[in-house]
Amino acid sequence: MTQLSKQKDVQGFPTKAVDFSSQNLTASLADAAAVGITVPSTDKNWVARITVETGAICWVSVNATAAVPAGATFAVITSELINPHQGYEVKVQAADTISIFNASGAVAEASIALFVVQNA
What we know:
Mean pLDDT: 88
Order of helices and strands: EEEEEEEE
Distance between the termini: 16 Å
Radius of gyration: 15 Å
Low-confidence stretches: none
Number of strands: 8
Oligomer: single chain
Strand content: 35-45%
């Protein structure tokens, strides 16, 4: 498993970048459908980096089924919108579920990279 390793800048060189994960999962998400994964139980604490293709409208949820919020007013929901230009990082634990819902009107490509967090 790839351990999450973010460090401070060193002499102007940006070392904040993370290593390439050895736990990469991808899916072509059908429109109007939620797809989920279960975080591996090999380690307790993880960070999930979730990305979707540019133009995709996708929602993510941890330990609940992701869904598009209904209505034109603010309401409490269990999903968060993924910004396709920045992605989404979230702390998760072993056996948590991550669900992504595609509301793009077409198939959307998504990926989840998992990183082990030591001493969390």
